[in-house]
Amino acid sequence: MKTLILAGGSGTRLFPLSREHYPKQFIPLVDDESLFQKTVKRSLLFSSPQEIAIVTNTDHRFLVRDQLAAIGCDCRVLVEPVGKNTLPAIYYGVREVTREDGSDTVAVLPSDHLISANGSFQEAFLRAERLAKDYLVVFGVRPTSPHTGYGYIRPGKSLGEGSLVDAFVEKPDPETAGRYIADGYLWNSGMFCFDADLFLAECETCAPEVVRAFEHPVEEAYDATPALSIDYGIMEKTQRAAVVPLDADWNDLGNFDALYAVLPKSGDANAVRGEHIGIDSSRNLIVADRLVATVGIHDLAIVETKDAILVATRDEAQRVGEIAKALREKGDSRALFHTRVHRPWGSYTNLEEGQSYKIKRVTVPPKRRLSLQMHHHRSEHWVVVTGCAEVTIGDATYLLRNGESTFVPAGTVHRLANPGLLPLELIEVQIGEYTGEDDIVRFEDDFERA
């Protein structure tokens, strides 16, 4: 079975933990592995690494590559030039993974869900695979509560391995959700399984505008295709929709209340990732890099990162997307990035910034290097903390070791590389009239950035 993993996302629903350039699927929310890495490992239950393809965007492709390398899984990565919702992503992915092999069964998985990959999970995929020649199969999770944040599926006629889909219904109010559960409805998991030829044929019937768009090269196709979800574009229109029940712990971690639900609790029902001392404090979610002390508070979400703190009642914490939107509208980079920013060559962390200076900690993994570049408006001082740096400044190239430093004048072509076997870490002090990230002219780049 081939597997497509969708790894886009806007990073707004768990702000400030997630950002547009670092959405929730890449964050180790519940343990040391990200949701994306957990999804890849689940896929290995029914696909080999060579049968798994990741569909992501330009901003996340190097993050995907690094997280795959961290778990030793060499999967194919397909890059969308722009996000157009799930149907174009799946259509593009299905065409690519079956281009050489022809028709095949394809599983489609979101990368930002937390799922228990138990025996029932594996059995559900075997049942779906048996239905996939004749039906587009969606997995329906058996509800554990009258949840108002999920779409629901009403099963119809039995097919043995599953059921025909009688109807897809939108997120209900609490009373309606309770009635749905009593009537045997299932949560719509957003996971699918189908025969590639059947899926492509149903796209011809239900979403011909997407098919026409992909008659052109990928860049042109994404300009032309409408933004459509697979639910609206195909599943709600096709006569070949089936549902297979899934009995597994499943959570889309769509808000902080959902994160609270899956984390272990202390005796006073606080869910804590980090260090917390609480006096008369209960049922709180606390995620922080430093000590959080609370007195007399209950049912709150307290989420701290290096550059932002969220304090909200847990039942209102789903509104954090409004904060991210407000930051984007005023051009605030905190909607996009954390203080630690991932780049294809490694990462940097903003330590301090003033009107005419910026201080960063720069980390370069072994055998990687930055572009050959120049800045018009700033000079840079580099001090090596750990590892060995190969420095090119103008016509000179030399090595710097622990405690050694160098100076890069404004307007000088330069490059930083790590030729060693250990990570390189250095402190960079930028000084100049402008220290923005767009003050860069690249002459050579291993990652083909403009």
Explain how this protein is built.
This protein is α+β, with helices and mostly antiparallel strands and 450 residues long. It has 3 domains: 250 residues, Spore Coat Polysaccharide Biosynthesis Protein SpsA, Chain A, CATH 3.90.550.10; 74 residues, no CATH class; 105 residues, Jelly Rolls (Sandwich). The protein is built from 11 helices and 26 strands. The strands form 6 sheets. Strands 16-17-18-25-20-23 form a 6-stranded antiparallel beta sheet, with no helix packed on it. A hairpin with a 3-residue loop joins strand 17 and strand 18. The radius of gyration is 24 Å and the shape is globular. This is mannose-1-phosphate guanylyltransferase. GO terms for molecular function: GTP binding; isomerase activity; mannose-1-phosphate guanylyltransferase (GTP) activity. It is an enzyme of class 2 (transferase). Keywords: GTP-binding, Isomerase, Nucleotide-binding, Nucleotidyltransferase, Transferase. Its EC number is 2.7.7.13.
